[in-house]
Each structure stands twice: as C-alpha cells, then as structure tokens.
C-alpha cells in the first residue's frame, strides 16, 4: 500500500518522521510530494497512491479521476472544505479529518488575540481586562471547548451556544448553555466564533446578529471567513465605534477594514491558529494512524463523507 503525503505547505520534519514511523510500522510505503507548485505534479503523484494525507491542499474531481488506486484521503486538520466530498463519494473514496488535534493551538490563539485587543494592540495606552467579562462561545466543538477551558482560567464568565451539542454536555463543563445564537450575542461582550463553514452558516454572522451585542463588543474569529457577512460587518462597525473585530482569517475586504477601523480591527497576516509544532505533529500522526486503521481494519471513525 502506498501512502502519499501531498503538502503544498509541508509538515515540520519531526511530523513527517512520525508519519513515516506509523506508515512503515504497518508495512506500507510512504511517498512525499512537498512544496509542489503546479497541479500537474499532484495529478502525477496521486496516480498509484492508495491513501493521501493533505493539509489545505485541494482534492477535487480532477485529482480523484487521476488517483485510480485511491481508497482514502485524510485532511490533517479540522476543516475539510478543500475536499470535494461529493466527488470523493462518487469515486468510492473515504474522506476523514483529524478533529481535535489542533484545537488547543487555536484556542490559545483566540485568547491571545483577545488579550492583544483589550490591551489596545500593545500601543502603550491603558486597556481593559478579560476577568469578569462575559465570553460567548459560538459552537461548542473541539476548539470551543478548549476556549472555554482557557477562558475560565482568565476568570471570564463563559456562555455557549451550539446547534447540535446537548445543553447538558456544555453545562457539565461549568459553561452556561444558551438557546440561540441571538441570545448569545445579546448576552456577551466578547464572542468567539467556532462554527464550521456550511451552507447554513455561510454569511450568517450579520448585522442583525451583531447589533445587539453589549457596549464595548468584540468579535473574535478563528473559524472561517465565509461565515462572516463582510459588507454587513463593515456597516455595523461604521455605525458602532465601540465594536472590535479580531480575526485569524483575513477578510476579502482586509484593506477596507484596516483603513476604516484602525485601532479596533486586527487580522493575522495568514491563518495561524493551527500553526504550532505540537498541532502539526499531532495532526500528521493522527492522519497516519487513521489511514492504517482504515486500510488494515476498515475503521471509519472520523469519516466525513458518510
Ligand atoms: P468541530 O467540528 O469540533 O466543532 C464544530 C461545532 O460547531 C460542533 O459542535 C457543531 O455542533 C457546531 N455547529 C455546527 N453548525 C452549527 C450552527 N449552525 N450553529 C451552531 N453550532 C453549530 O470543529 P472545531 O475543530 O472546533 O473547529 C471549529 C472551527 O474552527 C471550524 O470552522 C474550523 O474550520 C476552524 N478551525 C480554524 C483553524 C485555524 O487555523 N484558525 C484551525 C482549526 C479549525
């Protein structure tokens, strides 16, 4: 069995070493396609691969057509919107992600960005503190849960809304579960976004939802840019001089945000949430283990194209 690691942005060497160890211990062969610059290189490399590990690399119908021997694709990371799930199902290819492996990294970044923002981006002026503030966690999944854990350490009052996670599960962590996104945004001065980008959530963070946030509101986005209605967020920030937007996913209208909202807007230059040595290693090794489990034992835990 041949397992291909196809990464435009490669894993750290220590992660590749860990992946190799897992794959070779199972008696499989590892092939690497790193820093490729052209889709043709990917199309060529996938020809005889039985399994592929990717990061943000695009797996579309053309790649799947070229990968005649392919049985499984694992996205080392949480979001899998870079894989055409319908095409994978049509090609009888299992797609998995590696949920939870980078959640702590993203949560630490979210809290780090909150501190940075309430301290006025370390510009030398007096800021405010997070302790005692109401934090709303929008979606209580792997990242949301870690944000709750860290935020409680800061002494924040933590609330959450999740459309699918039962309230008892949230409240067991000492977090107050609310019934709707509207209630969450009305209650909390700081909201940390952790919803996936789906047909339902795209553009869902809009003027109507944000307008009722308490005075001195801050929205922190480490999820996806697609969930934000950018035009309506710009309008809201024009109408509310107290509103801050802090994001790890640069908006399409970054230049406009930066120009209009200096001092209350910040974006990382590129997505950094999962960019830690630990997350990189964890996700890569989990991907290798999931491939071995699938190819040897047919284990489909973490399959996302049911
Ligand atoms: P997850 O799948 O563990 O959790 C997502 C949660 O969202 C689930 O609990 C689900 O019930 C909930 N949900 C789904 N639709 C909802 C809706 N309409 N309303 C409310 N809740 C809803 O995912 P995760 O690992 O916690 O990741 C969360 C987000 O962070 C995703 O958008 C992911 O792409 C993003 N992410 C970003 C980075 C980064 O580098 N910044 C890294 C990892 C993940």
Automatic annotation (TrEMBL):
InterPro entries: D-isomer_2_OHA_DH_cat_dom, D-isomer_DH_NAD-bd, NAD(P)-bd_dom_sf. It holds the Pfam family 2-Hacid_dh. The keyword Oxidoreductase applies. Belongs to the D-isomer specific 2-hydroxyacid dehydrogenase family. It is an enzyme of class 1 (oxidoreductase). Keywords: Oxidoreductase. Residues 123-252 form the D-isomer specific 2-hydroxyacid dehydrogenase NAD-binding domain. This is D-3-phosphoglycerate dehydrogenase.
């Amino acid at each position: 069995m041949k397992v291909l690691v196809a990464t435009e942005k490669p894993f750290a060497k220590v992660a590749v070493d860990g992946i190799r160890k897992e794959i070779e211990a199972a008696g499989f062969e590892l092939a690497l396609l790193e820093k490729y610059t052209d889709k043709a290189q990917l199309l060529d490399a996938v020809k005889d691969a039985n399994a592929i590990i990717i990061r943000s690399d695009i797996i579309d119908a053309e790649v799947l057509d070229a990968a005649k021997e392919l049985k499984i694709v694992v996205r080392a990371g949480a979001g899998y919107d870079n894989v055409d799930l319908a095409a994978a199902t049509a090609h009888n290819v299992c797609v998995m992600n590696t949920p939870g492996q980078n959640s702590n990294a993203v949560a630490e970044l979210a809290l780090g960005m909150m501190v940075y923002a309430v301290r006025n981006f370390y510009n030398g002026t007096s800021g405010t503190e997070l302790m005692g503030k109401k934090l709303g966690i929008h979606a209580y999944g792997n990242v949301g849960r870690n944000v709750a854990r860290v935020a409680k350490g800061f002494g924040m009052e933590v609330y959450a809304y999740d459309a699918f996670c039962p309230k008892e599960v949230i409240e067991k962590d000492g977090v107050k579960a609310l019934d709707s996104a509207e209630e969450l945004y009305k209650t909390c001065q700081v909201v940390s976004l952790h919803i996936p980008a789906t047909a339902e959530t795209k553009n869902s963070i809009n003027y109507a939802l944000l307008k009722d946030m308490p005075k001195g509101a801050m929205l922190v986005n480490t999820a996806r840019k697609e969930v934000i209605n950018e035009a309506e967020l710009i309008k809201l920030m024009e109408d509310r001089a107290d509103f801050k937007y802090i994001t790890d996913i640069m908006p399409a209208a970054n230049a406009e945000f930066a120009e209009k909202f200096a001092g209350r807007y910040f974006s990382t230059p590129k997505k950094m949430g999962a960019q830690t040595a630990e997350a990189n290693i964890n996700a890569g090794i989990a991907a290798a283990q999931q491939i071995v489990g699938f190819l040897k034992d047919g284990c489909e835990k973490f399959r996302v194209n049911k």
